[in-house]
Design a protein that fits this description.
Number of strands: 6
Number of domains: 2
Protein name: SulP family inorganic anion transporter
Helix content: 55-70%
Keywords: Membrane, Transmembrane, Transmembrane helix
Strand order of the largest sheet: 3-4-5-6
InterPro entries: SLC26A/SulP_dom, SLC26A/SulP_fam
Oligomer: single chain
Membrane topology: Multi-pass membrane protein
Shape: elongated
Radius of gyration: 29 Å
Number of helices: 21
Distance between the termini: 55 Å
Structural class: alpha/beta
Main location: membrane
Order of helices and strands: HHEHHHHHHHHHHHEHHHHHHEEHEHE
Length: about 500
C-alpha cells in the first residue's frame, strides 16, 4: 500500500504562490531583455524561462533556485549566433544539455566548486563589461560593433551620433531613466518594492513615459510564441561535425554549469532549507537545456537574481519556481502583444544595470591588498574576454590560475652551511620543481670550486624529474676526475 503524501500547510502554499508572482514579475523583463540582447526573438527568452520553471523546476537538485535565460550567457549566445547562425542555436543548446547530463551522471557536479573563484569572478566581470559595452549602443537604438575593442574604439563616434539625433537622445533618456529607477526603486518605493520588483517597475515606467510623451524610440518586435519557436530537424545535427560548433557546445555547457552551481552555493547560504545536490542539479540543468535546444530557445542557467528574490519573497518549496513557469506560459500565450510596447532602450538599461552588478568593484581593492595574484587573475580574465571572446578569455584565466597555484606551491628553501673549513653543506627543503630550477642552479654554481660539497635533498617533499636530472648532472660534472667532490643525499624512496 502506498501512503498519500501529506499536503503542505496552507501557509506554505500561500508563501510559495506569492513568491512565484514576485519571481514572475522579475523574470518577464529579464527574459525579454536577454533574448533581445542575444539577437533572438523576444519570445524565445520567455520560452527558456518557461522551461526553467516547468521542466528544471520539478526536478531534484536545488529546491529554491530559479532557472531561465541569464545575462551571463548573453555575450556567448550572441557570438555563437553571429558565427554559426540562428539555425545552429538549437542544436548547440541541445548538445550542451546532453553534455551537462553526462557530467551530472559522472558525478562531476562537485568538481565545479573547485574552479578558481578569481576566474569565475573575472568571467562574470568580463561578461558584465561586454554586456555594458554592447547595450550602450542598444540604449540609443543603434547596432553595436562586433568585437570588444571595436565597441570601445567607436564610443567617441557613438557620443557624436547620439548628440546629433533626436531619436537617439530620446532613447538614451529612456535608458538612463530606467537605470536610475533600478538604482533608486527600493529607497523610493519602500514596501511597495516587494510587490513591484525594480526591473518590472523600471520597464513599466519607461513604457508609460514613451507612450505619454510619444517618444520616437524603437520597441520590441513581436512574432508570436509559436512562430518564434525553431524546432530542430535531423539536418541540424550534422553541424556537430564542425569543431568550432563543438567548441561552442563545450563553452556553453561548462559556463552554464559553473554559473548554475555557483548560484546554488550562494542560494544555500541565504536559506535554511534542504541543501543542493550538485550532481542532481547539474542533471536538471542538462534536461532543461536539452528541451530548450529542441525548441530552438536560449540556453538556461540558474539565475542568482531570481533565485535570491524567490528566497527573500518567502518561498519554502519548489512549487514557487514551477508556478513562476506557469505564469510565464500564460503571459506568453495570452498577452504577447504587451511585449510590443516595451522600449528597447529600457531593456538595454535593465541589462546595463545587470552587467554592472557582475563587476566586483567593491571587492577588487581588498582582494588586491590581501591576494594580489588572485586580483591579477580576475582582471586579466575579464580584459581577455573583452579583447577576444568568452571561451578564450576563460581559458586564459584558468591557465593563469593553474600557473599561479603551481608557482605558489613550488616553494623550495636552500640552506647553505659553510662554517666548516673544507666542506659546505647545502640542504634543500620544500618542493623542488622546474619552476624553481633557475634559483637552485644559481645557488649551486655560485659555491666555491675548491671546497667539498654535501648536497642534501632528503628534506624535499617533492623532487620532479627536471630538478633531479639538473642537480645530478651538476654533481657529475664536479666529480668527473674520479674524486667525490660532491656527495648527493637523495630523498628516501617511499614504500610501494
Amino acid at each position: 500500500m502506498f501512503s498519500r503524501l501529506p499536503a503542505p500547510p496552507a501557509g506554505v502554499v500561500r508563501s510559495d504562490v506569492m513568491a512565484s508572482l514576485v519571481v514572475f514579475l522579475i523574470a518577464v523583463p529579464l527574459c525579454v531583455g536577454v533574448a533581445v540582447a542575444s539577437g533572438v526573438p523576444a519570445e524565445l527568452g520567455l520560452v527558456t524561462g518557461i522551461v526553467g520553471g516547468l521542466v528544471a523546476g520539478i526536478l531534484p537538485g536545488s529546491s529554491l533556485q530559479v532557472s531561465g535565460p541569464a545575462a551571463g550567457l548573453t555575450v556567448l549566445v550572441y557570438e555563437a549566433i553571429q558565427t554559426h547562425g540562428l539555425a545552429a542555436l538549437g542544436v548547440i543548446v541541445l548538445a550542451s544539455g546532453v553534455l551537462q547530463m553526462a557530467l551530472g551522471a559522472a558525478r562531476c557536479g562537485r568538481w565545479f566548486r573547485g574552479i578558481s573563484v578569481a576566474v569565475v569572478q573575472g568571467m562574470l566581470a568580463g561578461i558584465g563589461l561586454v554586456l555594458i559595452l554592447g547595450q550602450v549602443y542598444a540604449m540609443v537604438d543603434l547596432s553595436a560593433p562586433g568585437s570588444g575593442p571595436e565597441k570601445i574604439g567607436d564610443l567617441p563616434t557613438l557620443v557624436v551620433d547620439t548628440a546629433s539625433s533626436r531619436t537617439a537622445v530620446s532613447a538614451f533618456l529612456v535608458g538612463a531613466g530606467t537605470i536610475a529607477v533600478l538604482g533608486l526603486w527600493k529607497r523610493v518605493a519602500g514596501r511597495l518594492s516587494q510587490a513591484f520588483p525594480a526591473p518590472l517597475a523600471a520597464v513599466a515606467l519607461a513604457t508609460i513615459a514613451v507612450a505619454v510623451l510619444d517618444l520616437p524610440v524603437a520597441t520590441v518586435k513581436v512574432q508570436g510564441l509559436i512562430k518564434s519557436l525553431q524546432p530542430l530537424d535531423l539536418g541540424d545535427f550534422f553541424r556537430l561535425g564542425d569543431m568550432a560548433v563543438l567548441g561552442t557546445v563545450v563553452a556553453f555547457a561548462l559556463i552554464a554549469s559553473a554559473e548554475s552551481l555557483f548560484s546554488a552555493a550562494a542560494v544555500d547560504r541565504i536559506h535554511n532549507g534542504p541543501r543542493t545536490n550538485y550532481n542532481k542539479e547539474l542533471m536538471a540543468q542538462g534536461v532543461g537545456n536539452t528541451v530548450c535546444g529542441l525548441l530552438g530557445a536560449l540556453p538556461m542557467t540558474a539565475v542568482i537574481v531570481r533565485s535570491s528574490a524567490n528566497v527573500r519573497a518567502g518561498a519554502q518549496t519548489k512549487v514557487s519556481r514551477v508556478l513562476h513557469g506557469v505564469w510565464l506560459l500564460l503571459f506568453a500565450a495570452l498577452l504577447p502583444a504587451a511585449l510590443a510596447v516595451i522600449p528597447l532602450a529600457a531593456l538595454a538599461g535593465v541589462l546595463i544595470h545587470a552587467g554592472g552588478k557582475l563587476i566586483p568593484v567593491r571587492e577588487l581593492v581588498p582582494l588586491w591588498r590581501e591576494h594580489r595574484g588572485e586580483a591579477v587573475v580576475l582582471v586579466v580574465t575579464a580584459l581577455a574576454i573583452v579583447a577576444t571572446n568568452m571561451f578564450e578569455g576563460v581559458l586564459l584565466g584558468l591557465l593563469m590560475a593553474v600557473a599561479k597555484a603551481a608557482w605558489e606551491t613550488s616553494v623550495v628553501h636552500l640552506e647553505v652551511d659553510d662554517s666548516h673549513a673544507r666542506r659546505i653543506r647545502v640542504r634543500l627543503t620544500g618542493n623542488a620543481t622546474f619552476l624553481r630550477l633557475p634559483k637552485i642552479l644559481d645557488t649551486l654554481e655560485a659555491l666555491p670550486p675548491d671546497r667539498l660539497i654535501d648536497l642534501d635533498l632528503s628534506g624535499l617533499h617533492h623532487l620532479d624529474h627536471s630538478c633531479h636530472t639538473a642537480m645530478t648532472s651538476w654533481a657529475q660534472q664536479h666529480n668527473e676526475d674520479g674524486t667525490e667532490v660532491v656527495r648527493v643525499k637523495i630523498p628516501p624512496t617511499p614504500p610501494p
